[in-house]
Design goal:
Number of domains: 3
Number of helices: 13
Pfam family, one: Pkinase
CATH class of the largest domain: Mainly Beta
Keywords: ATP-binding, Kinase, Nucleotide-binding, Transferase
InterPro entries: DUF4384 (IPR025493), Kinase-like_dom_sf (IPR011009), Prot_kinase_dom (IPR000719), Protein_kinase_ATP_BS (IPR017441), Tyr_kinase_AS (IPR008266), Tyr_kinase_cat_dom (IPR020635)
Protein name: Protein kinase domain-containing protein
């Protein structure tokens, strides 16, 4: 059934175990899985739901756009998933249709209509949420997030098309394990999942339905995880019908999901709780006590007590902290959770996977600003953040505008090529290539064993409100350099600078930037900011190629297309270690932030 012989192919067929005979039929508020396979004929609906004689699913052989329905894979209370043939690209896909069975039914000519006018507002709210979810997922490209190829509205409803991949749910995998998984197995699972959630959270998007049955292990036990079923339409309809007890998964849903009150808003900490509950279940074989009950009497038994001696203190304490019942006492972000787990800087994709070198997709680039106003958004805010250094803002506003660069590539996952040997020369980059492409090319050529990880605390920064914060870690000792490419084509050495000269980092250490003495606040113009983080075995220098220098901070402005006569790989700087045999070893990473109004 596979469309490719490559076991790591992201478009491979997904096969999920079907419900066994006699299992309970789905309730109106159970969502169909995003991708399923090898399913029997759809189960009968609950008795209290009226259905027409032909059922709600599309007939086999019918066409929706270029997609032909082959069979029904799964049908739940909020959607139907079909196995379909994409006749345009000649591939098999999963086609998901918005179909809330409690609110609508299939009429003539495959049209979907509401059962009663009193359901129309709820149906439309769910439809809007379904479309918004598809639009959001279509922007991301990460190995642990399900892809959306396309989506559209038709027949009074909406459809989205996704890959059909072979795999098994984490829930089923854990049931089949003779004993709890090892810590190494769990960390291999958590590394890509937490990274994917960082990408989502950077766009102010929260999954809010993380559970073992919403995680698929592609190609079975020990393979890469895939996060499924955001269930956006289900949540919206549930909120409007007050059916929260059916929608939320007890044990995985934190208290703030039961009742949104000003003191308990949902945020990154909501997904942190659910993911920690998944780990708790994997280790103990049972979910944590429901959060609602814990508010009355907290009988949660710490994992540090239940799993003492079987897992590291770091892992069990990280999970216990993330499962605090009150949101303000819990781990606040996925970045913090990764740090508590010891994952920051240590996630390396397996062969055939993609590494998300840039944290989130870029919006459509804004037109290049006029020369008189040309400046780097983040850097321009320096004069506004606490220091009020005279002349800094004026320097950025009046410096000569660099030549416009080509529009930046969409910020997406980039495959990591095999690193070149440390002694291999770095090929010269064509002048016409944009800076993000050059950054990614240098990352792919990093020295073997010299791994660098860099990530922003937020991937979207609101102009005049948010400050940039990011972390850098490396597997080897070295010297950190940060270059910033702006939407106007400028290239600036952001770090080290006159306010922060000690750029040394130890092996396995995490460095958080910028320092308190040089905060960076987002300001106009809006657009994507690309950061190249370089860690070298010995000091490097970019000073010979700088064209200007900020008198207050000492940020070097570099030529965006490479200085005349510069050696190949000029973005790696020149040796500055005081002797002729400087080590050329380096590691690198790339991340981006989006400055928005």
């Amino acid at each position: 059934m596979n469309s490719s012989s490559d076991p790591e192919d992201n478009d491979a067929t997904i096969i999920r175990p079907s419900a066994t005979a006699g299992s309970a039929a789905p309730t109106p508020f159970e969502d169909a899985p995003t991708v399923m396979g090898a399913a029997p004929a759809p189960e009968p609906p609950p008795a209290h739901i009226e259905r027409d004689e032909g059922g709600n699913s599309l007939p086999v052989g019918s066409r929706q756009a270029e997609f032909e329905v082959i069979r029904v894979l799964g049908e739940g209370g909020f959607g139907i998933v079909y196995l379909a043939r994409d006749h345009a690209l000649e591939r098999t896909v999963a086609l998901k249709e918005y179909m809330p069975a409690a609110l609508a039914l299939r009429g003539d000519s495959s049209q979907v209509r509401v059962r009663s006018e009193r359901h129309r507002d709820t149906f439309q709210a769910g439809l809007k949420s379904f479309i918004n979810e598809a639009r959001l997922l279509a922007q991301f490209d990460h190995p642990a997030l399900v892809k959306v190829y396309r989506f559209w509205e038709a027949n009074g409803t909406a459809f989205m098309v996704m890959p059909f991949i072979e795999g098994k749910t984490l829930k089923d995998t854990l049931k089949e394990m003779p004993e709890p998984p090892t810590e190494t197995w769990l960390m291999d699972l958590l590394a890509p999942l937490t990274e994917a959630l960082l990408v989502l959270h950077g766009e102010n998007c929260y999954h809010r339905d993380i559970a073992p049955d919403n995680i698929i292990l592609v190609n079975g036990n020990g393979a890469r995880p895939l996060l499924l079923d955001f269930g956006a339409a289900r949540r919206v309809i549930g909120d409007m019908t007050q059916a929260l007890t059916v929608i939320l998964k007890p044990g995985y849903a934190p208290i703030e999901q039961y009742a949104e009150v000003p003191s308990m808003k949902q945020g990154p900490w909501t997904d942190v709780y659910a993911l920690a509950a998944v780990v708790y279940c994997a280790i103990t074989g049972k979910t944590p006590p429901p959060s609602v009950g814990r508010m009355v009497k907290d009988d949660y038994v710490p994992l540090a007590q239940l799993a003492e001696g079987r897992y590291s203190d770091r892992l069990v304490k990280a999970v216990d902290r993330a499962l605090q019942v009150l949101p303000d006492q819990r781990t606040q972000s996925m970045t913090e959770f990764r740090e508590d787990l010891g994952l920051a800087g240590h996630y390396a994709p397996k062969p055939g996977q993609m590494a998300t070198l840039i944290q989130a997709p870029a919006a459509t680039p804004e037109p290049a600003p006029k020369p008189a106003a040309s400046r780097m958004p983040l850097l321009a805010g320096l004069g506004l953040v606490g220091l009020a250094v005279a002349g800094a803002a004026a320097w950025f506003a009046t410096r000569p505008a660099p030549a416009p660069a080509p529009a930046p590539e969409p910020v997406a996952a980039a495959p990591v090529a095999a690193p070149a040997p440390a002694s291999a020369p770095v090929e010269a980059e064509p002048v016409a290539r944009d800076l993000p492409s050059q950054f990614r090319s240098l990352v792919a050529r990093h020295s073997e064993g010299f791994d660098v990880h860099a990530e922003a605390e937020k991937a979207t920064l609101r102009i005049d409100r948010d400050e940039l914060r990011f972390s850098v870690s490396a597997t080897r000792e070295g010297y950190v350099y940060v270059l910033l490419a702006g939407p106007d084509g400028s290239l600036v050495q952001l770090y080290p600078n006159d306010k922060a000269k000690n750029n040394h980092i130890g092996a396995g250490e995490t460095m958080r930037l910028p320092g308190a003495s040089w905060p960076l606040k987002a300001s106009d113009p809006p657009g994507p900011e690309h950061f190249f983080v370089l860690v070298t075995a010995e000091p490097r220098s970019f000073a010979p190629w700088s064209t200007e220098k900020d008198p207050s901070y000492g940020f070097l402005t570099l030529p965006a297309q490479g200085p005349a006569g510069a050696a190949p790989g000029w973005l790696l700087g020149q040796p500055d270690c005081g002797h002729a045999n400087c080590k050329a070893d380096y590691g690198a990473a790339v991340f981006s932030v989006q400055a928005v109004k």
